């Protein structure tokens, strides 16, 4: 993945600022992958998050530092996560995020969950049983070769479209097989009590925190230099880090 310019990073930040966590992730993935927002929203969640991990590696150094509460003793642990722990093998995405299974003799074709699905059904991250059912329903492409239209997935007409509770449960259980990178977990062991568990890792939240801090720092530099020299934002962002540092020091701030 090419290193993002600071202007591109700022563009991703601007697109995600003030938005919910899913829309932020889409804005960053679009900036990182050179996609439109629509295309980034249609990526399987694992492919979207792989772009964010790539962005983190291209733009920032070091491990991801985070905190985790031990479920055994409640102690807050500081955890350093190497980026290699967050990468999934590229071949895991083979099959274009689609799969097929058989439920009571019926062939069900399905695809991985996307950000667009989440934004359409549960933008705030609400996971009511009905929302979960509709989310999984949106992933069903066809039952016995009969395409399932998006309008059929409104909760009431689902049985009629072949989306019975049994089909939904089977597809929900099979989703990780077509998108293994969508749910990244870290194997942690508490240094205090020895409890071992698999902690979910929120890729968008952590990458956003780094991008947010970096963007605010860049804009603060622009503010100081623009005020001191009257330069335009795009010209300041085009300066090398060494030159910018020199001019910042020269302003005496
Ligand atoms: Zn513990």
What does this structure look like?
This protein has 253 residues and is α+β, with helices and mostly antiparallel strands. It has 2 domains: 6-65 and 80-87 and 201-247, no CATH class; 98-178, no CATH class. The protein has 10 helices and 8 strands. It has helices spanning 6-16, 21-33, 37-41, 45-59, 115-121, 129-138, 165-178, 203-229, 233-238, 241-250; strands at 64-69, 76-81, 98-103, 106-111, 140-143, 146-147, 185-189, 196-200. The strands form 3 sheets. It has a 4-stranded antiparallel sheet with strand order 3-4-5-6. The protein has a two-stranded antiparallel ribbon with strand order 1-2. β1 (64-69) and β2 (76-81) form a beta hairpin. 31% of the residues are buried.
Key traits:
binds zinc ion; alpha+beta; 2 domains; 4-stranded antiparallel β-sheet; two-stranded antiparallel ribbon; 16% strand; 10 helices
Q: What's the layout of helices and strands?
A:
Blueprint: H1 6-16, H2 21-33, H3 37-41, H4 45-59, E1 64-69, E2 76-81, E3 98-103, E4 106-111, H5 115-121, H6 129-138, E5 140-143, E6 146-147, H7 165-178, E7 185-189, E8 196-200, H8 203-229, H9 233-238, H10 241-250
Antiparallel strand pairs: 1-2, 3-4, 4-5, 5-6, 7-8
Helix pairs in contact: 1-2, 1-8, 2-4, 4-8
Bound molecules: zinc ion.
């Amino acid at each position: 993945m090419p290193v993002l310019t600071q202007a591109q990073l700022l563009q991703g930040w601007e697109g995600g600022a003030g938005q919910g966590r899913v829309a932020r992730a889409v804005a960053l993935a679009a900036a990182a992958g050179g996609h439109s927002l629509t295309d980034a929203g249609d990526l399987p969640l694992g492919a979207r998050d792989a772009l964010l991990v790539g962005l983190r590696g291209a733009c920032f150094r070091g491990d991801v530092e985070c905190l985790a509460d031990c479920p055994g003793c409640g102690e807050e642990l500081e955890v350093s996560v190497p980026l290699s722990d967050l990468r999934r093998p590229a071949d895991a995405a083979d099959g274009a995020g689609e799969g097929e299974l058989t439920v009571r003799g019926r062939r069900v074709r399905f695809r991985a969950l996307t950000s667009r699905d989440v934004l359409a059904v549960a933008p705030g991250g609400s996971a009511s049983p009905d929302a979960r059912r509709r989310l999984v329903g949106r992933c069903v492409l066809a039952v016995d070769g009969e395409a399932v239209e998006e309008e059929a997935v409104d909760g009431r007409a689902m049985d009629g479209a072949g989306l019975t509770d049994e089909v939904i449960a089977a597809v929900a259980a099979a989703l990780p097989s077509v998108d293994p990178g969508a749910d990244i977990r870290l194997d942690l062991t508490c240094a205090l009590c020895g409890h071992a568990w698999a902690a979910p890792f929120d890729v968008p939240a952590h990458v956003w925190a780094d991008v947010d801090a970096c963007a605010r720092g860049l804009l603060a530099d622009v503010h100081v230099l623009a005020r001191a020299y009257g330069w335009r934002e795009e010209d300041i962002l085009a300066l090398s880090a060494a030159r910018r540092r020199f001019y910042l020091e020269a302003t005496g701030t």
